[in-house]
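Good morning,

Attaching, inline, the backbone tokens for the sequence recovery test we're adding to the shared suite. The designed sequence is right after.
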């Protein structure tokens, strides 16, 4: 999950109306590191399956801090964390009953974030077979419960470009691009081989999770006056394209399944800028992947740092503006949107969070945006901004059942 302010996004809407959406796919000369410059928005109307699949996903839940957990080792050290790493962030061992509870509550999809860089066996980025098998087992559990599953490349974004080399996953800069591309392509080749025979109705791929300039001043918000941001955006455009090409060329159902693609940090504000482009896709089955813990002051910001426990009319207007901007740039032009992560941290403000849920999920549904709730199993984290616990994974009961009820009421 991430920490960026929707206020930055809202301000960006002032200039967003000035953007040109004309598509120019011509490639300019490569950078000194050989990175192609991709120009144009790449926005074309998707095949009807894309929108139908997003609608079928309805609303979802994230198995957060589990298969994406990394902190039992230096995940960029070349070590294999092993299958036990699913508990390294304090999670209980996952079990099938989690998916039973999701299906019973009315969820139609589950996002299973997966990190791969800490499960590599050799210089060719071969994924530990035991890790792949465990991922597969839980994908199967979810599908058995009738859930549509999203899997991705998650916490594999290196911390900096300094010293970037094999084993560091990816980093969106020209200097790091060649190794980053190799990592992304090799991971998707192996994931595709494992899941190519899974129906396109059951499984969705997401190219990258929140790709960004880690620990850079503009880590969470694209700034169009920053050359480093523009370089990063171009690298992300290229990595998305390589991922899509790899998935489609792997054959079988991978030629037809929905693929979610993000902009920088998966931020809505970074998706609507002219520098971001959707990949070319022969199947025209793409969806924009975005994340928004919004409005930030309510959903993530600590009260002592200026956050608010009250959900206000101003907050509602911010959400409406965000969804409208995504509709104007993508949905109205035939590109569906998935809000792959959202949530509001627990500030002991259940009534306000209920109102926020109604507004957030209701506002998204207006544009057929599927929202996937972030759950890090942390009910009373000392860090107020990280209290995104919703499902007790031991008892498979909901900590805040009325919040889940409010989500489902939107679809009645």
């Amino acid at each position: 999950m991430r920490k960026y302010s929707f206020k930055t996004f809202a301000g960006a809407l002032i200039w967003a109306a000035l953007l040109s959406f004309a598509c120019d796919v011509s490639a300019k000369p490569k950078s000194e590191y050989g990175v192609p410059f991709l120009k144009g928005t790449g926005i074309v109307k998707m095949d009807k399956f894309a929108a139908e699949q997003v609608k079928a996903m309805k609303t979802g839940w994230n198995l957060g801090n589990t298969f994406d957990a990394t902190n039992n080792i230096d995940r960029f050290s070349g070590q294999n964390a092993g299958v036990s790493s699913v508990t390294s962030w304090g999670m209980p061992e996952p079990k099938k009953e989690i998916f039973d509870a999701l299906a019973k509550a009315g969820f139609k999809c589950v996002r299973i974030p997966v990190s791969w860089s800490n499960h590599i066996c050799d210089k060719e980025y071969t994924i530990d077979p035991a890790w792949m098998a465990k991922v597969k087992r839980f994908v199967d559990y979810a599908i058995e419960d009738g859930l549509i599953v999203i899997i991705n490349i998650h916490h594999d974004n290196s911390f900096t470009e300094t010293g970037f080399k094999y084993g560091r996953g990816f980093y969106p800069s020209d200097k790091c691009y060649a190794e980053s591309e190799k990592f992304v392509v090799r991971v998707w080749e192996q994931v595709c081989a494992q899941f190519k025979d899974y129906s396109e109705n059951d499984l969705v791929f997401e190219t990258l999770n929140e790709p960004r300039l880690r620990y850079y001043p503009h880590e969470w918000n694209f700034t169009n006056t920053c050359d480093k941001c523009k370089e990063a955006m171009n690298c992300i455009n290229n990595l998305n394209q390589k991922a899509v090409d790899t998935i489609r060329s792997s054959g079988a159902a991978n030629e037809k399944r929905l693929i979610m693609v993000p902009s920088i940090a998966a931020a809505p504000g970074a998706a609507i800028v002219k520098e971001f482009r959707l990949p070319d896709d022969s199947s025209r089955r793409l969806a924009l992947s975005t994340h928004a813990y919004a409005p930030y002051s309510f959903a993530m910001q600590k009260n002592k740092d200026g956050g608010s426990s009250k959900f206000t009319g101003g907050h509602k207007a911010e959400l409406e503006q965000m969804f409208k901007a995504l509709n104007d740039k993508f949905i109205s032009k035939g590109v569906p949107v998935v809000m792959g992560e959202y949530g509001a941290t627990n500030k002991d403000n259940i009534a306000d969070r209920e109102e926020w849920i109604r507004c957030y999920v209701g506002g998204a549904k207006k544009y057929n945006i599927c929202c996937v709730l972030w759950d890090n199993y942390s009910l009373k984290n000392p860090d107020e901004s990280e209290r995104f616990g919703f499902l007790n994974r031991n008892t498979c009961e909901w900590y805040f059942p009325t919040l889940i009820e409010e989500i489902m009421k939107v679809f009645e």
